[in-house]
Amino acid sequence: MKTGKFFGLALLVLIGLLAACDPPDDDEASPPTVITLLPPILTPTPRVTATLTPSHTPTASDTPLPTDTPTPVTPTSTPSLTPTPPVIGVVISNQNVNVREEDNFRATVLTSLEPGTQVEVQYSNEDGSFIFARLIDDEGQLIEGWIDARLLNMGTFVPPTIGPSPTPTPTQGPQATGESGFTTATPFIGGGGISPEEAAEVSDVNVLAYCRQKNVNPPRVTTEQTVSIMWSWFVKEPSFMTPHLQNANYEVLLDGRLLENYDDYRTAMTDKPIDDPASGNWYIYWFVPVGRLPAGRHEVTFRLTWDSAVNDGYEDFGPGTSNETDEGNCVFTVVEG
Question: Tell me: the pLDDT tens digits for 85-109?
Fold first, then answer.
């Protein structure tokens, strides 16, 4: 009995539920809207952080290499320089010596110096034939110029040269070790490049090679004096001189020793000869320096021949003529100076 009542009651409840599930009519009121509240979305508030100010990034620099530590130098006292005294040359000649603008015998003459004049030696030219010197004249003026090296006594001093070192000049003629005891100097003329007056200044004394034939007394010579052996040739006109020079052979000996290369000591031709300026003839001279001679008797022998006949404007000379040779001599004495 109780079971049936309970079953009936359950059926009524089920029907009621089904009825409630039927869709409502349009006129019926809408059921209430159910609003579901969602929990709020919380946005986290950012924390305040400190803004870092960028710092300066240093530029990389080169790492210095290790260096040697200098050793301290102990200063030393600088010695004072003693000025080098000038080298003094003395004019050695029996005549005045020319001072020239350039180092050759054709250069302008600036002044002339008396024998014994002292000059300050500067230097020589390349071949040593001229010395550049200076001096103060009597008026206090500075004079500078070139002087023939053989006319200056510089003792043992060898002056410096300008330009490249000169090439040694081959030995000319007899040397100091010869039997006669004389030397032949280095050529100073070069064949006609010097005046007779200048050539006569080269040595202290000039000995004429044929003084006996010319009736000329030989000069007095001392062991301290330098000597040149001289001779000449003259013609009526300059055109006669060239054939003579081309054909002449001079054989001049001092105490039996031949003076070689005599043409290296030949002067220029002149119409004013040093021994007879008013002759009107044209002359060439030879002055061959032989240096200082020992005390005693000395003799020069002279002999001239020609390869072909020549004429001097007055007569013929040479082979086939009445003057095939020209000879002479001179004897002189050297005394202790």
Answer: 778 888 887 677 889 899 887 788 8
The single residue listed with the structure tokens 């404007």 is 313
Beta bridge partners of 252: 302
Q: Where are the domains of the chain?
A: 85-163, 170-337
Whether the Cβ atoms of residue 265 and residue 286 lie closer than 8 Å to each other: yes
Contact call for residues 183 and 203 (beta carbons, < 8 A): no
CATH superfamily of the 85-163 domain: SH3 Domains (2.30.30.40)
pLDDT (tens digit per residue) in 298-325: 999 999 999 999 999 999 999 999 999 9
Phi, psi of 61 (to 5 degrees): -110, 155
Query: 152-153 and 257-258: which strand pairing?
Result: unpaired
Task: Cite the beta strand spans of 168-279 per DSSP E.
Answer: 205-208, 221-222, 226-235, 248-254, 257-258
- Return d(Cα 221, Cα 274) in angstroms, integer: 21
- Smallest CA-to-CA distance from 121 within 110, 108, 112, 130 is with 130
